[in-house]
Design brief:
Layout (H helix, E strand, L loop, with lengths): L26 E4 L15 H14 L3 E5 L5 H13 L13 E7 L2 H11 L5 E8 L2 H8 L3 H17 L5 E6 L6 H14 L3 E6 L6 H14 L7 E6 L6 H11 L3 E4 L13 H10 L16 H12 L20 H9 L16 H4 L10 H13 L6 H18 L5 H15 L1
Parallel strand pairs: 1-2, 1-8, 2-3, 3-4, 4-5, 5-6, 6-7, 7-8
The chain binds 3-methyl-2-oxobutanoic acid (KIV).
Length: 426
């Protein structure tokens, strides 16, 4: 079903909005800066958003949903800056430039704002949505089915008329929508020019087997679906967002919407690191599916998002939690010493965490000459060779931070600090 025998390239294929040349390639659509920022208290400044967007690009995400431009002039400005910079200059090792996407409700004002913000990117996308479940149409929109279909069709066509050739449409609350009505809405927006149809489980209500069937049914029953990309957007209200996303990919979705650390409305979204590493770790069972993510940048992205949003990662969080690679019990430690695979299914190095780097290496405000050498050698381990005046300046700034924050820094924190200093200086 997932087409293992047809997998060929194993490297990022050319970007065509409504088609992926390799059937096994899965696009990663990151919405940390939009749905993620909707987490209570997670507001980021425009500058922080730009730094996060650079990191997402370095990570290799295919599409960055940079914000909801109609929501405020600040958000429009932030999305525009990301489109201008991150949407034009490659920073990832494979030299790719991500699509920059802006969210819009199905009305002209929102779509105008989204297009105005993203059109500066090399690959701009507008993502428009309207609810299709009875409960949302009746109580929130107060519109009939016919009105909803008409609005969806007209607004996709409107985005096209502005010159946007990459349009994503989401039937909000698809997980609880009537199936035949859902197929109908999707058929109409595909005819109007949508290139990706995203299937949100807006309230995180479905179970993995149901979500898999939902995607498979859409694939089998929607005319024209073969001409577009099917996407998933799974909220985590029942703690099933990652499982549902993987089930969707298994059934044929080739764009997965995720956020770093799984942040987002209420209980959050499917987390980028869990989805990407699960696909990598269980690639064979998933039919050979692969992504363009350079997993070595995951830890940095996680720390950056945690620091900027103030949403700290629980210690036992899969992949990026502080305990994800810690082995406490004697039996486990003994096993680990004999063979790492006894208790580890992924290697910390694969996500940018160096076991040796973490062991007891601490630099703080009391470090002086040896601290300078230690900082130099730490940065060298991460590939940054700095000397002379540059080293003096960096060390001075490092001590200032250590003094102010009154804490000592492990290697990973130093790396994060250094990357942020470098990015903020640009
Ligand atoms: O949860 C949701 O339905 C959304 C859509 C806008 C994709 O965030």
């Amino acid at each position: 079903r997932s087409g293992a025998s047809r997998c060929s390239l194993q490297s990022r294929p050319e970007y065509i909005p409504n088609h992926i040349p390799d059937p096994c390639y899965v696009r990663i659509f990151d919405t940390t800066l939009r749905d993620g920022e909707q987490s209570p208290g997670a507001t980021m400044t425009s500058k922080e958003k730009l730094v996060v967007a650079r990191q997402l690009s370095r990570l290799g995400v295919d599409i960055i949903e940079a914000g909801f431009p109609a929501s405020s002039p600040d958000d429009l400005d932030a999305v525009r800056s990301i489109a201008m910079e991150v949407g034009n200059q490659p920073v990832s090792e494979d030299g790719h430039i991500p699509v920059i996407c802006g969210l819009a409700r199905c009305n002209k004002k929102d779509i105008d704002a989204a297009w105005e913000a993203v059109r500066h990117a090399k690959k701009p996308r507008v993502h428009t949505f309207i609810a299709t479940s009875e409960i949302h149409m009746q109580h929130k929109l107060r519109k009939t089915r016919e009105e909803v279909v008409r609005i969806a069709r007209e607004m996709v066509a409107y985005a096209r008329s502005l010159g946007c050739q990459d349009i994503e449409f989401s039937p909000e609350d698809a997980g609880r929508s009537d199936r035949d009505f859902l197929y109908h809405v999707l058929e109409e927006v595909i005819k109007a020019g949508a290139t990706t149809v995203n299937i949100p489980d807006t309230v995180g209500y479905t179970l993995p087997s149901e979500f898999e069937k939902l995607i498979a049914d859409i694939k089998a029953n929607t005319h024209g679906i073969e001409n577009v990309i099917i996407s998933t957007h799974c909220q985590n209200d029942l703690g099933l967002a990652t499982a549902n996303t993987l089930a969707g990919a298994y059934a044929g979705a080739r764009q997965l919407e995720v956020t770093v650390n799984g942040i987002g409305e209420r209980a959050g979204n499917a987390s980028l690191e869990e989805v990407v590493i699960a696909l990598k770790c269980r690639q064979e069972l998933m039919g050979g599916l692969y992504t363009g993510i350079n997993t070595k940048h995951i830890v940095m992205a996680s720390k950056m998002v945690a620091e900027y949003t103030g949403l700290h990662v629980q210690p036992h969080k899969a992949i990026v939690g502080a305990n994800a690679f810690a082995h406490e019990s004697g039996i486990h430690q003994d096993g680990m010493l004999k063979h790492k695979n006894t208790y580890e299914i992924i290697s910390p190095e694969d996500i940018g965490l160096s076991r040796s780097n973490e062991s007891g290496i601490v630099l703080g405000k009391l470090s002086s000459v040896s601290g300078r050498h230690a900082l130099k050698s730490k940065l060298l381990e991460f590939g940054y060779d700095i000397n002379g005046k540059e080293l003096e300046d960096v060390f001075k700034r490092f001590k200032e931070v250590a003094e102010k924050k009154k804490f000592t820094k492990t290697s990973q924190q130093i790396l994060f600090w250094w990357q942020r200093v470098s990015d903020e200086d640009i």
